[in-house]
Amino acid sequence: MMLKLANLNHTSYLIDNVIVVDPARNTMYPGHVAIVDGKIDAVERGRAKEASLPIYDGGGLHLAPGFVDIHVHLREPGYEYKETIASGTLAAVAGGFTAVACMPNTNPAIDDRSVVEFILKQAKIAGRARVYPIAAATKGRKGEILSEYHELVAAGAVAVTDDGSPVASAEMVRRVMEYAAPLGIPFIEHCEDMAASGDGVMHEGFYSTKLGLKGIPAHSEEVCLARDLLILKSVRGAKFHAAHMSTRGSIELIRRAKEDGLPVTAETAPHYLCLEDKDLVSYDTNLKINPPLRGAEDRVAMIEALKDGTIDCVASDHAPHAAHEKQVEFAAAPNGSVGLETMFPLLVKHLVKPGHLTLPQVLSLITNKPAQCLGIPGGTLARGVAADLVLFDPEETWTVRRESLHSKSSNSAFIGHSVTGKVKHTLVDGANVLPSRVGV
Questions:
Q1: How confident is the model at residue 434 (pLDDT cuts 50, 70, 90)?
Q2: 310-319 pLDDT, tens per residue?
């Protein structure tokens, strides 16, 4: 008799009766997985035969590498009323994510070795998803003085960025790239020309005029991106990653840069694939996001860019805010939406179901490809790697509700939306980190 995964209590065991999805190899097949001492020992086709290991029943669920999100705001230290590392990583594993990279717009910013060490300590105490701190490119994210990259990387930082705002000057961007290059870490840019954005609160276009809201032009993103790509050409060994791309003009710039052989990678977020500026007719502040929701042509361009590889991966840009901060007039509300628990089902609904991409292709966008962008472990089913796995039902339909979210904040842009795909179990080092989930 096979055991139930909900009662998993071994470090060495076998999961049988699953559909294995291997994004790195673009394959999907009925199979089983052997885990020994918290690491993947074998992934094989067909049902398991007699084994010396305890056998758990996968119940016909799909099994894949744990998801990897390289753009998450965990808010701690400094903004624990919005999110903590414990609550954020709980939301992560509820969404199938076994690894997240956290952004440095905390208080204090992640610009000192002690802050990196604090975050890693809190993540270890929480015991959920792995956390990879991304350090501030400049002290206090002020764009004036470089942070101490060697110390930050030695402590565990995996990239640098001033996310939440761009590195303001071209000269400072050059310095960031020059100092990050020898360490082999990418510079992640929040592409925005602040003067062009001004006090805009949504995409500049027909709907900003109709709704009477000040607009942010597409070229606000594109001008900053173009500047950085030009600088990238002159810095040997630099790695550049463009965060939360949202416009078709940005796609063209990235496509051209890749054709020219520049070391650039890029991400977009689910809301740019599922929503448009016209959706703001509700004035729902949970739809106030930076970069803003763009037009229909931009949304289609994002999907095409994922299909042809111009955009490398999808990240949630999980940005928790307390209820009282969002319950204000639209222009006064902070930017951001939580997204860890909705990213996977949104991608299934909007990319897999319409036939834009296959399930293995979509999972590659949230497993091996983001891990490659940051140069971190994870996202594969290779023998000997940590058994960070997710089991899910790709057909289960459910409705996003505030009360069902595990994040400390519930400012989701998708409250009330019907989505497809439900995570049932999330394993880190072979241990079930969603013990409360009712599964097979």
A1: confident
A2: 999 999 999 9
Helices (H), 81-189: 85-94, 113-126, 149-155, 170-180
Closest CA to 143 of 166, 111, 114, 117: 166
Architecture per CATH, domain 65-374, reads as: Alpha-Beta Barrel (3.20)
DSSP strand pairing (13-22 vs 62-65): parallel
Q: How confident is the model at residue 2 (pLDDT cuts 50, 70, 90)?
A: confident
From CA 147, how far away is CA 23, in angstroms rounded? 36
**pLDDT, tens digit, for every residue of 29-58?**
999 999 999 999 999 999 998 778 999 999
* Phi, psi of 420, rounded to the nearest 5 degrees: -130, 130
Confidence bin at 403 (pLDDT 50/70/90): very high
Q: Which amino acid is at 192?
A: E
Whether cis (ω within 30° of 0) applies to the bond prior to 182 is no
Active-site entry in 69, 111, 298, 317? 317
Topology of domain 3-64+386-432, CATH: Urease, subunit C; domain 1 (2.30.40)
Residues 224 and 350: their CA atoms lie apart, in Å, by 29
Query: What percentage of residues in the chain have a pLDDT greater than 70?
Result: 98
**What count of residues does the chain have?**
440
From 363, 370, 364, select the one nearest 392 (Cα to Cα): 363
Phi, psi (5° rounding) for residue 166? -80, 160
C-alpha–C-alpha distance, residues 97 and 341, integer Å: 9
Name residue 30's beta-bridge partners. 19
Exposed/middle/buried for residue 165 (C-beta within 10 Å: 0-12, 13-18, 19+): middle
**Annotated catalytic, 308?**
no
In whole angstroms, what is the distance from residue 311 CA to residue 374 CA?
14
**At 116, phi and psi to the nearest 5?**
-60, -45
pTM: 0.97
Domain boundaries, the chain: 3-64+386-432, 65-374
